[in-house]
Each structure stands twice: as C-alpha cells, then as structure tokens.
Design goal:
The protein is α+β, with helices and mostly antiparallel strands and about 270 residues long. Helix content is about 20%, strand content about 30%. The protein has helices spanning about 25-40, 70-80, 135-145, 195-205, 215-220; strands spanning about 1-10, 45, 55-65, 85-95, 105-115, 130, 150, 165-180, 180-190, 235-245. Strand 8 and strand 9 (about 180-190) form a beta hairpin. About 40% of the residues are buried.
Length: about 270
C-alpha cells in the first residue's frame, strides 16, 4: 500500500457535510469517487476534521492508502479532472512514516466570516453569515480572550456532541474587521461539535451590545449550553488549516506561527 496525503479546498454549500452518507451528496463521497477512478480500485480517505453541511474548507488534509502506484501529478491533476468545480485538490505528497490525517494533527484553525452591512451579498451569500446590525469587533475580540487556555467548553458544544471530554485548549482567538466583513480566527488543539459556531453566536450577541463582554467568562463557568446564544449559521464557517509536527513534512500555515513550542496532540 502507498499512503498519499492531500490538501483539499471546497465550498460545502451543495453538500450534506464531509462524511459519506447513504443517498446524500458529500465531499468525502465525491473525493473517493474521483480518486477511485485514478486508482482503478476503491479508495477510502480519512480527513483531519469532519465538517458539517454547508461548511467550507480553505485547507482540509486527508490521507488514503492506494493499492497501485501513481505519480503525484496523477493524483493531483487526474483527481481534479474527476471532481466537481466546488472541490479541488491543491497539493499531493507521499506520507512520511506513520502519518495519519486526524491522529497526527497537533492543532486546527477555523475562520468564521460575518458580512456586516445593511444588505445581503449576491456573491458571498454562501461564504459568509449576514448580520445587518452594526457589530463592534473590538468588543468581540476582548470578550473572546476569556476563552484562551484550557477550559470545559460545555456551554459551547452541541447537545448531540459525542466527545468523551468537553475540555479543549484554545491557543488563540482573534476578531478583526476586514472592510465590510468581521472575521473570527480560532486555533485550538481540537474542537467540539458546533463549538466554533456557538462561539460565533455568542460573540455576535456581544458585538451587537445585547450582552456584556464578560458573558463569555460567565458561560465557561456555567457549563450549560442552554444559557448561551443560538448556533451561528454554517455557511460562515471555514476549516482554515491543520498543523502537524515538522517530521511529517506538511507545510505549516502562517496562522500556526503563534503556537507555543510545547504544543502537542489532543488525546
């Protein structure tokens, strides 16, 4: 078997999420179909982190084991020739040692994008969450800093979340304005189901002045999802990047330059 690692970007608008589902169109299903044509054999892929319906990826990382030899250009160009226009393989490389797209990852970064203007966008309707009332991004940023460090994020996890532990380590979270967009960048050792969207929902409430800046701290103490804001819509969420130890040879995104030297995998 030959293990190959791929970087994937996709617009999740037309899909029922990443994970393969019977009778539903998924990103994993489309990718496996394309790669199987190149291999002339069934291919199964494993990803760094599953995304929900409507969620996008700037860089998802996957690996798969192929029973046949193909050059990297074949996987890259050939794979893309069989993929729909809203999914693209951006790079391909051989796996090093025991690389695993999910279990070798040290950290993941997400980006949540809010279009903050009076009118909806024809171009960004599936790429950003629209918020017509003014948001104070500096207030949102200050509130977000309460979430740094290791905490029990029970107030920010979906009630259907199946993770054994609600504890996660948030390395950084930044909120800033880019023209008409308010952007939330988050990096943690791992994320709970709906964690980013629930954080975004809380920060939108704070940015609009409906809640105080220290509401984030109060919710951490409460450990109660029912006391937090509504889950923000999926189409503003993007899996931005995944970080791996240098020995695996996966390029490091500049977002991860801020990680501490002792950052390690979530167990």
């Amino acid at each position: 078997m030959n293990r190959i690692v791929l970087g994937i970007e996709y617009d999740g608008s037309a899909y029922a999420g990443w994970q393969w589902q019977q009778s539903k169109r998924t990103v994993q299903g489309e990718l496996e179909r394309a790669l199987s044509k190149i291999a002339c054999a069934p291919i199964s892929v494993l990803c760094a982190g599953r995304t929900d319906a409507g969620v996008h990826a700037l860089e998802q990382v996957v690996h798969f084991d192929s029973p046949v030899q193909r050059d990297l250009r074949g996987w890259l160009m050939g794979g893309n020739s069989h993929l729909p226009d809203d999914i693209r393989i951006t790079w391909a490389q051989p796996a090093v040692a025991d690389f695993h797209a999910r279990y070798s990852a040290i950290a993941r970064a997400y980006r949540y994008v809010i279009l903050n203007r009076p009118t909806k966008s024809a171009l960004l309707r599936n790429q950003a969450t629209w918020c017509y009332w003014p948001l104070d991004e500096q207030r949102m940023h200050r509130a977000a800093q309460h979430l740094l460090g290791e905490h029990d994020f029970s107030s920010f996890r979906a009630q259907s979340c199946q993770s054994v532990s609600p504890n996660r380590l948030m390395y950084f979270i930044d909120v800033y304005r880019d023209g008409e967009k308010v952007v939330i960048d988050l990096c943690a050792n791992a994320f709970l189901h709906h964690m980013v969207r629930n954080i975004a929902g809380v920060l939108i409430e704070i940015g609009s002045g409906k809640q105080p800046e220290d509401w984030t701290a109060e919710l951490l103490v409460a450990k109660d999802r029912t006391r937090a804001a509504m889950t923000a819509p999926p189409h503003g969420l993007h899996l931005a990047a995944v970080y791996y130890p240098s020995e695996y040879g996966v390029a490091k995104h500049p977002l991860f330059d801020r990680l501490p030297a002792n950052a390690k995998r979530f167990d």
